[in-house]
Write a structure and sequence with these properties.
Six copies of one chain form a homohexamer. With 241 residues, chain A is of the alpha/beta class. Chain A folds into two domains: 9-187, Glucose Oxidase, domain 1; 192-240, no CATH class. Chain A has helices at 9-15, 20-29, 76-83, 105-113, 128-131, 189-211, 226-240, and strands at residues 41-42, 49-60, 88-93, 118-121, 124-125, 138-140, 142-143, 152-157, 161-163, 166-168, 173-177, 180-184. In chain A, α4 (105-113) links the parallel β3 (88-93) and β4 (118-121). The A-B interface holds A 19-21, 23-25, 28, 33, 36, 38-39, 41, 45-46, 177-180, 182, 203, 206-207, 210-213, 215-217, 219-220 and B 72-73, 78, 81-82, 98-99, 101, 104-107, 109-110, 112-113, 126-130, 132, 142-147, 150.
Chain lengths: 241, 241, 241, 241, 241, 241
């Protein structure tokens, strides 16, 4: 399972056409329930997050663990940030701690420059006044002005972690929007993407019908009847045409 | 008590001139304290919700309760949605569960078409990216991408329910805004509306005075002195004139 | 310690150039950790709060404590409001209670007229529909439509209190923004302000560098190397020049 | 499904030989996960609860719902209590409310006389000083001195309810011990009992082996090897012999 | 109101014949609801607490407030302890904080020697291994090994405080048992005691009847019929005779 | 730091003479605050736990991670159990999850046979009815009947983990009692033990004095005056003599 290639940027781009809710439903049909992070939202409403997970694990701070000038280069937090490239999402396991930020404006400026795709944590960001002015997807449980060392010590990079009460393996696909954040195991990412993007399009079609007064009993017909399928194909053409 | 007629659309329209906070104060004066839902907000800040309650009760899902194609027509969720008409608010008792949505875009599109007044739940909505683009009042504790069946099984319609830790009887008046959601027992709705709308207008008058520097001791004078009443009447004329 | 003069309006104005996060870091370097309020946000995102604390303590309401017309003048809530002047922030210890507001539009209109700097509470505001239309900094844990007497009885003014799980002494400096609210003990306010404003400026400079691709290892260099200091001085001139 | 006969007293007696944990495992193997109540414990450590569910639903109290002398006979609480007979467990849906008791000594004395099997609620008992002196199984989230009317209004009997975040249908089998409380859907109660009692016995055998030093890898062998089965049969004989 | 004499030791002794639940009911009939502490239990199950409140207020610790050897004598904690005499209960407002103890074995040994009646806090005790070996009533939310200074700074004595979400005035009567802790305003203590002790005795009588099979409808008859009153009087004689 | 030898059985035995509260105070004097687990208690009141940490990390379960018969031998849970020897405490990072047990009777029987010192988790045990009958120290947040796989997947052994919101390194000393659980970094274990055992003895002496009526001001004298030291030495002799 772990030998699979990294998810491609093409596939990530395709994931942008499906919502986290639709992907959750696709995964449910395949038997996955433990894949949706609890209570994590974008700092900027409307933000969309899609990328491959690079994981960073924080543990509670303790007074005998301090980052000295000498050890800074090998501090897990620094290593994780410098690993980030195009399409990567940093997933920070902060144990749901709401009493300090995980980092703020400077780190986001750094990984934004590195073209990474975003950050998600079950902890908090700091420097919200700045973060709300930039177009970099930051998903978190909340915000807090304290620096991370008041509560956290960064301990390792790219081990499996917990974030928002779900498991994240390095390389898994992360998709976030206003509903929250879903994790797609990388081994099934392509199939899940395919199904979800089609489903998303069909639901948009159904929504159009419903807004025009089609009765409710129809809308969870699954699969589509031939007649509905044919109307859907016409609708789709009219959209893209 | 239970034989009273449904609250009229006229009365619902009048309720739009009073805030949930002012209605809460009116009810407090009449001895009601258990009438304000805890922690429920509009998905779109600024939304205003007024309508008559149709109640829908969800219970925890269990593996021996599933909606089959055959049973779908008689599923409580479907029955509730098709009951909704002009002036109706769907009140979904979701036991404060934050681990899945109660429903999302398709159902809202359906009941929006049916001209219903809105939805309130102590659970979550899903499809927030869509719901935030439409003008349909959705009040909830939070949002979540999971479909309702991961946590809920819809069990009955128009029984008394709990929502946001307060009792809601079918037909009660629901008023929501940025402060939250208040429930007005239908038997006293007319009287409560009358008092609240007048009070709202008087408070707006007092707020004007206070913004211009009238000292604080005056503003909770109740009842108005003759002099204040006379100033209020002039202010009111100037507003509507 | 308690004989120190009140913090000046000049110093308060200077504090506006530092974020609550940066001030938290300054205080951390001086050994202060218990100075950041938990879970308190501005009602209007983007609001900035700076002022001296006037404290008001609420206790749970009890049926033998009621404000009569005769006692209203000496009610702690009224006394606190009338104390408020330019640069003052009202800090209301509401014990983190989320089941009623502390007050709403009328009181805010009153203290807004008195040119006070804002209000912060670990309870709730009511009348959010109005408060979101005015430019008066209101920081709270949440909102609720109930009037304060359903949960609170105002008991005394300008004693030390707890707010958001931190101690606030009357006269302490309160600084709030989108991250939350920090408390600066008044005895060290001047020094903390000096350091924080300089730090804020340096971090803005570093952020500029990082956005242009300077590698991450540099940005927590503390103190600046001579070369960095010199670049910083040029950057600063270019900003203000 | 709902036409099934009530679970017999014989079957209930047999259930006493399986723990709630073992029954949870049996149900898990049959695909049931939503069957274990969260955070509910016996008032008296060591108590064992087994019976058929009679359900009672409480809603939040509201000032227009009061039990008058005339309506007392038809109050849902009274009706439920008088329904209780041998082998019955009262399941009280109290919405997880921890701010009042559901009832106390007098009601327990009454249903104890009626030979019922016990009470379980996700709310609280009151009169713990008395309840801890009698041998009647009371399972709850906590205790509180307030009478139920301060928070609750009993609304109906023998509808499906939620208790401890799981669904309970009238007639389901309830098994509680120091671990908590499990709900067995009545339709599969016989099969679940059979499997669980056998499993319990096998685990007791394995525990004996482990206490004597058998290595850990063996103990979740499932099914038993012939050799293990034979040792188990001997062990069983030695127990009952 | 505040000029009333302290509650006498005789009255405190009489209070020992009523449970906190029965006193809660008496207060409810007099219109008091905000008088029962939430979630506070005896460290030793079965303990009974009765006394007059001496209040001690803790605030969050802050690094500029430390108890030096010179200031120790005037530290609020020391002052409160030395005030304690026969019949006094120390009520420590610890803001519901569960992250440190309020104090432990040494302080309890001290106030135990002073013949005080007990301690109640909405925080934690430390030194539970010792406290569970002595017969001194300690009521708290939980236990924790940290000393109080890690979270608290004792700030004043005998002001009104909050404990377990209810108001406590100095001199109020505190009654605790396995259900929790009730606060009786001192002005009405005598009347409340009288009613509660009688009610307790009548309920014991009813419990006896119910245990022998009297039907449930009878037991909340209030007031007693002549026949019931007469049976009660005989029962009472047989108890005391 | 990490090259230090394992803590000896002799030192562990000595730790048994100090309470978790006293050790917390010793660590506080050395600048350590983040060393006391939150909300973790012995299943059997009065239990004492002392040992060296072996850590086991659980992550949220996910449907693509299952323990097959083939992979069982290499499952982290099995590896950890078989590592346990005399003086070892298993520390299970269960992320504070209260919705399933980490394991139950069989595993405890196994590691009890291996003479290990105990188990501590911020999750739950299952099989409490059995665990409460044996003398093996089990410390946890709560109990639950579900097997671990319903919520957890064991992922690695002897990495640093979080338990009860504090960091635990493999080899750290764990001391638990009725107050809770403290973690002593192994590098300073010897010194902390020395100081704590002496302090414990001195506090027992002071407690004796206080119980006999010595005034409160004396008892936190630190260091002892010559006179007190001399009395303490006599007291000690009388104890051990």
């Amino acid at each position: 399972m772990s030998n699979s290639n990294p998810v491609s940027l093409d596939l990530l781009n395709k994931f942008k056409h499906a919502s986290s809710a639709t992907i959750s439903s696709t995964l449910a049909k395949k038997g996955y329930r433990f894949i949706y992070m609890a209570g994590i939202r974008p700092l900027k409403p409307g933000a969309k997050l899609v990328g491959r997970a690079i994981t960073l694990r924080y543990l509670p701070s303790r007074e005998d663990h301090v980052v000295s000038p000498d050890s800074r280069q090998s501090y897990a937090q620094q290593i994780a940030l410098e690993k980030m490239g195009e399409g990567d999402v940093l997933v920070v396991d902060a144990r749901g701690n709401l009493d300090s930020g995980i980092f703020g404006d400077l780190y986001v400026a750094r990984i934004g420059f590195r073209k990474s795709a975003g950050v998600v944590t079950d902890g908090c960001f700091r420097d919200a006044p700045y973060l709300r002015t930039v177009d970099f997807p930051c998903f978190a449980s909340s915000v807090h002005g304290h620096a991370h060392a008041t509560q956290h010590w960064a301990v390792d990079v790219n081990l499996p972690v917990s974030c928002g009460n779900v498991l994240v393996n390095p390389g898994d696909v992360i998709v976030g929007d206003d509903d929250g954040v879903v994790v797609v195991p990388k081994e099934i990412a392509e199939e899940v993407c395919e199904i979800s993007v089609t489903q998303e399009s069909k639901e948009e079609f159904l929504r159009d019908l419903l807004e025009q007064g089609e009765p409710v009993q129809r809308f969870d017909v699954d699969p589509f009847t031939d007649e509905l399928e044919s109307r859907y194909q016409s609708w789709k053409k009219s959209k893209t045409g």
